[in-house]
Write a structure and sequence with these properties.
Elements (H helix, E strand, L loop, with lengths): L2 H9 L5 H13 L12 H8 L3 H14 L2 E3 L5 E3 L9 H7 L7 E2 L14 H9 L13 H11 L7 E5 L2 H12 L5 E6 L3 H10 L2 E8 L2 E2 L1 H9 L6 E4 L13 H14 L4 E6 L20 E6 L1 H4 L6 E5 L1 H11 L8 H12 L1 H27 L11 E6 L2 H10 L2 E2 L1 E2 L11 E6 L8 H11 L10
Parallel strand pairs: 3-13, 5-6, 5-8, 8-9, 9-10
Antiparallel strand pairs: 1-2, 4-11, 6-7, 10-11, 12-15, 14-15
Helix pairs in contact: 1-3, 2-4, 3-4, 5-9, 6-14, 7-14, 8-9, 8-13, 10-11, 15-17, 16-17
Length: 456
């Protein structure tokens, strides 16, 4: 028997998941399992303890959550070295890019001047009855009707709830679905907090390439064939962050066909984080795989980040566990904010404001992409307000832009698997069209290797 297995087996008195986790945690704190030590596999330790692999898996997962253990999926689990549990390292690398710039294009936030007016809707809420009970339904009927109406051309989800924004939704769904070591198919590049969440859960991201139409079917098929069956496929169907790609209906059919033919259990989680400011029509794999697709739609970028509301919908067997677990925490999202959103979704002035924001974001994005194309730099940027720009060297490019008063987000936190070159992500939501040519010129210089001449 390996010494680590023998040491753990001797320390474990309680063979429940909590008992195993507590015993291993004590050994780590006592230094008997030092930092960097490779831990036994789930199956090996389960055999030694005479318990099930599921129980050991739960113990490992809880240790990952508190930060004592880090996992590399099939590469094994190790005692962490000065790891601060729950700290989203990739997310903070993006956040720390913000600074005192004359033009900060690093943060993917909407223009506050383009958000819908709320005063008239707020006044109507003040005159109406207020929800009062802890046992009231978590989703207001009028809001559920409005959300289902927006989804009516895609699918009719069996179960629907509302949580505190799209990232909260992704967190709750992934936590409900995943176990330590599970494989998760993600777009490459992808939204950095997705990778932070998977690391915290102890799941293994598997990178799948994308083009302007979304995830590539051939790469999806290869990823499905490359190892154990993945538990989740995590995608952004519209205005992909960071590239601005949007899935077409044809691509959705192709991806659904690959999934249907190669896996029976992989759950699709779709994060439509831009909602109604997207130019592309809504598209969902739920139209093809309704029994294993969870659809998330956010209202933060279209109606206001401070609403903190996103809808989560899908089959009852996938959504009800999320609702049940949430009852031990916040239980529901503010029903006052739900009333406000329901009113905004049916208010003509708000609808007109969202339409204006959508068209304005198109003009700002296209002003930059056209200027880049004029300088020989092609980007996807089909939708939303993010642009993924290739550069010669990420660090040099950030410094060059900063010297001209322009802030951008570094590309590496977005990358699930490095494949081709350095990039920066820029957000055009706050970019005046008159400044697009100057920013494009600075980016063209950043895209040129040192010593090879500069674009004009």
């Amino acid at each position: 028997m390996e010494p680590e297995i023998a040491r753990i087996a001797e320390a474990v008195q309680d063979r429940s998941a909590a008992g195993i986790a507590a015993a291993v945690n004590r050994l780590i704190k006592a230094g008997e399992l030092p930092a960097g030590c490779r831990l036994p596999t789930v199956r090996a330790l389960a055999r030694a303890l005479g318990t099930s692999p599921t129980t050991v898996n739960e113990a490992w997962r809880s240790l990952v959550r508190v930060g004592t253990v880090r996992t590399h999926g099939r590469g094994g689990s190790f005692v962490a070295e000065n790891h601060r549990a729950g700290w989203p390292s990739r997310f903070w690398r993006i956040a720390s890019a913000a600074g005192e710039f004359a033009m900060d294009l690093s943060a993917g936030v909407p223009d506050p001047t383009l958000l819908p007016p709320i005063h008239d809707v707020l006044s109507s809420i003040g005159r109406g009855p207020q929800p009062t009970g802890y046992l009231d339904p978590p989703v207001l009927p009028e809001l559920e009707r409005a959300i289902r109406g927006a989804w009516r051309d895609l699918h009719d989800p069996e179960c629907l709830t509302v949580v505190d924004g799209s990232l909260d939704a992704v967190d709750r769904v992934l936590t409900s679905l995943l176990r330590l070591g599970d494989r998760v198919l993600v777009e490459n590049p992808t939204f950095p907090p997705f990778l932070d969440l998977l690391e915290l859960i102890g799941a293994q991201p598997v990178a799948v390439g994308i083009d302007a139409d979304g995830m590539l079917p051939d790469e999806l098929a290869a990823a499905l064939a490359s190892g154990d069956e993945p538990a989740v496929l995590l995608v952004q169907p519209r205005a992909h962050n960071p590239t601005g790609a949007s899935m077409t209906p044809e691509r959705a059919r192709e991806l659904a066909s690959v999934l249907r033919s190669r896996t029976e259990s992989c759950v699709v989680v779709e994060d439509d984080h831009v909602g109604e400011i997207a130019v592309a029509e809504p598209v969902s794999l739920a139209a093809h795989l309704p029994t294993r697709t969870v659809s998330i739609r956010s209202f933060s970028k279209s109606h206001g980040p401070d609403l903190r509301l996103a809808a989560v919908a899908g089959p009852s067997e996938l959504i009800e566990p999320v609702i049940a677990r949430r009852n031990l925490g916040p239980a529901w999202s503010s029903r006052l904010l739900q009333q406000l959103l329901a009113g905004m979704l049916t208010d003509r002035a708000c609808a007109d404001a969202v339409a204006l924001a959508r068209s304005t974001y198109v003009l700002r994005r296209e002003a930059l992409t056209h200027s880049l194309a004029h300088r020989g730099i092609e980007v996807i940027a089909r939708d939303g307000f993010n642009v993924w720009v290739p550069v010669a060297n990420e660090r040099d490019a950030l410094v060059l832009l900063a010297a001209q008063g322009i802030g951008a987000a570094p590309g590496r936190p977005f990358v699930a698997a490095q494949r081709s070159g350095d990039h920066l992500r820029l957000t055009t939501a706050l970019l005046p069209t008159r400044e697009a040519d100057r920013v494009a010129g600075a980016l063209a210089n950043a895209a040129t290797p040192r010593g090879s001449g500069m674009h004009r």
